[in-house]
Structure formats: C-alpha cells, structure tokens
Design brief:
By secondary structure, the protein is an alpha/beta fold. It has three domains: 1-28, no CATH class; 32-175, NAD(P)-binding Rossmann-like Domain (Rossmann fold, 3-Layer(aba) Sandwich), CATH 3.40.50; 199-292 and 324-344, no CATH class. Helices cover 43% and strands 19% of the residues. The chain has helices at 42-53, 69-79, 89-95, 108-118, 134-142, 153-169, 178-187, 220-223, 233-241, 243-256, 294-302, 316-319, 333-344, 348-364, 373-383, 392-408, and strands spanning 2-6, 11-17, 22-28, 32-37, 58-65, 83-86, 104-107, 123-126, 146-149, 172-175, 195-202, 263-267, 273-279, 284-288. The chain has a seven-stranded parallel β-sheet with strand order 7-6-5-4-8-9-10, with helices on both faces. The longest helix has 17 residues, at 153-169. Bound molecules: magnesium ion.
C-alpha cells in the first residue's frame, strides 16, 4: 500500500491498494471557527450569508450584537454559536432565557471584550461600526487571530498602535472594506516597494451631481439614498459627505504603510472598479466586480484561497462605460479634513472620527443640517489639541472628550 499526501486545502489523503485496484479518498475539511463582532449589522448579515454558502468550511462560534435581539436570536438558532454577546443590558435581559442550552451569554461593553478574549475562534470579523469596535478588535489581535476588518475606525484612530500590535502578536489583518480588499488583491505577488501609488475609487455618493448650495437643504432620506451600495446608515451618510473616503485614505495609509502623497482618490460613479494600484513601471492593476460586499467578505475569510460563489457576475457590455473624475475638495470638505488630519497625525484622526460620529448622529436625528457636519468636525479639530504619539489610554480619552465637545455644540 502506498500513501500519497497532498498538502492542499482541503487536505486529500489518498490510499491506493494496487493489488485490489481500489482507491479511497478521505477528505479532511479544515473548519475555521468564526467570531462575528456586530452580526446584526449590514456586514455581519452579509458575513452570515457568505458562510451559509460555504458552511462546510466555516463554523460560527460567537455572535455579538448591540440590541437587535430578534435578528440575533434567529441567527443563533440557525448558526448555533456557543457564545453570544449583547452590548445593551436591557436587550441581553430580553434574550437570556431564550438561548439554546449551553450557549454562553456575555453582556455589556465588558462582555464584548470577554467574548473576544475568551471564546474559541480562528477568524475575528470586525463588522461593528464606529469607535466601539476598537477595544474588542484589540483583544482578538492580542490572541494572534486573523482579523477580517470591516471596522475602519480601528485603524483610523489607532493605526500606529494597531499595526505594531499586529506585528508583535503575529495577527494578520485582511481588509473587508471593498477598496482595501481590491488593493490587497492587486498586491498579491507584488512588492509594496514597487508601488507608485494607491488609487482609491469613490462613487461620489448620492450628492455627486448636486451643487454645494444643495447641502443646506439636503434631507436625511436624500442622504441615505446611495446609488450603488446598500449599507448601514452611518456609512451611507459618510458616503454622502465623502468622509467615508477620507477615513478609507487613513485606513489605507496604515494597512499598506504608504504616505499620504502616495494615496489618491478618484471618483468613479459606477463602483465597478473597487480600487487600483499603480506600480513604478507605470502599470496599473484594478480589481473589478459588481458592488456586493459578499465578495470582499468571502475573500477575507478564505484568503489565500478563492472559493466558488454565487455572487452575481458582471456583464461588461451591459455596464458599457466606466467614468472617472477628480474629487471636488472644496465641495466635499470632509474629504479634505481627513487628508489634513492624516497629515497632522497624532490624535487628529481620532478627533476627526469622534467628531464625525457625533455630527452624523446629530444629522440623522435631524438636529443639524447636512452642511454643518464638516463645520462641527473642523471646530473639534481646532479646539481639541493634538497629542503627537498617543498611547491607547490617550486615544480613548481623546475620543471621549471630543464626543462631549461636539455634543455640546
Ligand atoms: Mg469602502
């Protein structure tokens, strides 16, 4: 008997008995355990959609949510995680007696941290929106896990500390944000030293063709009406102000280690090219596809493999034309503020992010006009001061103080 082993994934162990002319194949499926931080949000739901289609490769071991317990409970019943964490105590109270036997419940912000630091998983999907995603993500990094990162704020506010911690703990970040996933895919097999620039594409959001004067009267519903992507409210407003692209520039800086002057933004209204890399021989690589977050999510879960998927294929003749424009930084002031904050460094990106989160919340609550979002952020950046080399405590303190300041305006 001869044993042939192939160290591909899935591992195939083939035994061959020549005398009996008999061949058996034994498949060892490598199941990866997945922790989803923010499973009821847009990225969380799409992550579960992806896993549902490749269920023989991934097992959901932990789900966390803020307060949407109806959806969380449905997810728990389908995916049967052994750990559940709910941030809001009142919501945790609602489901505590409805969880299946043996499913451990953590509650509160501390509970999210404990779930990330104690439960069993290989891949941490950071799909929670906002600064609140930072602390649990740090717990996963400390354990050297793969981080499928959708929460851009983690790198925006603490990029220097996070990248150093990842290096120290051998944790890898695979980006889920479609632009960064595109760049990551373009860089496979390439050297970062041969990159001339990264070109992040931006749809321009719902107000691309409106005059700046329109921002005075833009409504919440108009700002939430994104032409290409279906996302959560916060990201959709950020897309309308183009702060989303600004945060992504900062995220790209830390993910790929390139300076601000090597990161360009180009408006591409069709959202077919998700981003590009220009190399120093003049060649440009682009990653394309229909706008569907399931693709970058699946890539972050399965990298370096590409598994089959039923994601809709693009039809180039049907798309017809791809167009590109310079972004108008005078009109989209938030994008300019983000470039400036990255250039300033220190706690400036943390102030930018905290002020933006509160300003967007105020706009969504109809307390301020759309045009006031950059005004509040600029005030915060001018007022809060800057720490050049902040540690984590300084960042948490800066975030808290900035929120209080912008709430008071
Ligand atoms: Mg994006």
């Amino acid at each position: 008997m001869r044993i042939i082993r192939e160290f591909a994934t899935p591992l195939i162990l083939s035994t061959l008995n020549k005398n009996l002319h008999f061949v058996t194949f034994v498949y060892y499926k490598i199941m990866k355990k997945v922790f989803i931080l923010g499973s009821t949000g847009s990225i969380g739901v799409n992550t579960l959609n992806v896993i549902r289609n490749i269920a023989d490769r991934f097992e959901v071991t932990a789900l966390t949510a803020n307060s949407n317990t109806d959806l969380l409970l449905a997810q728990v019943n389908e995916f049967k995680p052994s750990v559940v964490a709910v941030k809001e105590e009142y919501a945790a109270e609602k489901i505590k007696d409805l969880l299946p036997q043996g499913c451990k419940l953590y509650t509160g912000s501390e509970g999210l941290l404990s779930a990330a630091s104690e439960s069993d998983y290989d891949i941490f999907v950071g799909s929670m929106v906002g600064f609140a995603g930072l602390a649990p993500t740090i717990e996963a990094i400390k354990r050297g896990k793969r981080i499928a990162l959708a929460n851009k704020e983690t790198l925006v506010v603490a990029g220097e500390l996070i990248t150093a911690l990842c290096k120290d703990k051998c944790a890898e970040i695979i980006p889920v944000d479609s632009e960064h996933s595109a760049i990551y895919q373009c860089l496979v097999g390439e050297s970062i030293n041969e990159v001339e620039k990264l070109i992040l594409t931006a749809s321009g959001g719902p107000f691309l063709n409106k005059d700046k004067s329109f921002f005075e009267k833009a409504t919440v519903d108009e700002a939430l009406n994104h032409p290409n992507w279906k996302m959560g409210n916060k990201v959709t407003i950020d897309s309308a102000t183009m702060m989303n692209k600004g945060l992504e520039v900062i995220e790209a800086h830390w993910l790929f280690g390139l300076p601000t002057e090597k990161i360009d933004v180009v408006i591409h209204p069709q959202s077919i090219i998700h981003s590009m890399v220009q190399f120093h021989d003049g060649s440009v690589k682009a990653q394309m596809g229909l706008p569907d977050m399931k693709l970058p999510i699946q890539y972050a879960l399965t990298y370096p493999e590409r598994l089959e998927s039923d994601i809709e294929r693009m039809n180039m003749p049907e798309i017809g034309t791809l167009s590109f424009f310079e972004p108008d930084l005078e009109k989209f002031e938030c994008l300019k503020l983000a470039f400036d904050a990255l250039q300033t460094g220190g706690t400036a990106p943390c102030v930018l992010n905290a002020a933006n989160e509160i300003a967007v919340e105020k706009f969504l609550n109809r307390e301020i006009k759309f045009s006031h979002i950059p005004v509040l952020i600029e005030k915060a950046l001018r007022t809060m001061g800057n720490h050049v080399s902040p540690d984590l405590d300084t960042i948490f303190d800066c975030d808290k103080r900035t929120r209080e300041f912008v709430k008071s305006l």
